[in-house]
Protein 1
Amino acid sequence: MADYHFVYKDVEDLEDDLDDDRFLQEYRRKRLAEMKKVVKMAKFGSIIPISGSDFLHEVSQAPPDVWVVVILYKDGYPECGVLMQCLEELATMYPATKFVKIISTDCIPNYPDRNLPTVLVYNNGAGKANYVGLHTFGRRCTPEGVAMVLCQSDPVLNDGQNEGEASREAVLEGVRKRFIEKVISQHENDDDGSSSD
């Protein structure tokens, strides 16, 4: 009878091991699916420099589910630098949106410098919006202000977590929250500085 006890115990141990294996296989499958989704969505994360010959492939022929934000710029223009800093921050925050930069005259020959910086927004091979000059992003150009303008009518910015209108609403809510936090922080810093006078 003692032999049956050992056999029964061995069978129980094998069943436990089998359950553990099933659990680990299921966990591994789910984790791989999550990782694939993150890799698929986190395609970009920075501003990609392109040339005129790259424009068709990188912008017009981008996949239909990818929004492309193009900045036309020239080195040495402070306004371009200000907007570029905002877009660099947005590119890291919204890695499923493709950000590219191109020297204005490489993209459009004889493009007037007075129109710099210019932002073009593309989706599904078509131009969806354009913003000429820094003033189109508000009196003080901030990443939050640029994000609000870009998402006014379309879900341009995508963090890779949501899609379509849900993405647009999530981005706008996040931008509003960060803007309020920034204003409060600046106000608190102003209060700290004025009390030392």
Note: The first strand starts at residue 47 and ends at 49.
Protein 2
Amino acid sequence: MAQGRGSAVVATAVLCLLAVSLHCEVAEAATYVVGGRGGWSFNVSGWPRGKNFKAGDVLVFNYQKGAHNVVAVNKAGYDKCSTTPRNAKVYTSGKDRIRLVKGLNNFICTLPGHCGAGMKIQISAS
């Protein structure tokens, strides 16, 4: 019987440590406001410089609803300022929150002329 209780204590301790480590990993996610106080606007393409993004971090795109949008695109869409792929996710709330995935994350505004005027960002998340 004593051996059974010892195994249960060890199992409980391992589960507690696992729960704590998972909680710590989630707590490390950061939130970034794209463009800082100026928000999602023209000429923000340089905003990511100097920041270290990780998968799970959240980008907040603040802008006047109806004046802009945020579209998650692939590299071709970023380079050509086009909605590529065709089923790209379009955000229009004016207070969009987007969780980064590992690798390259590309976002543009697809209103006419906006992306070409620098309303696009490319972020690499580790």
Note: The chain has a mean pLDDT of 87.
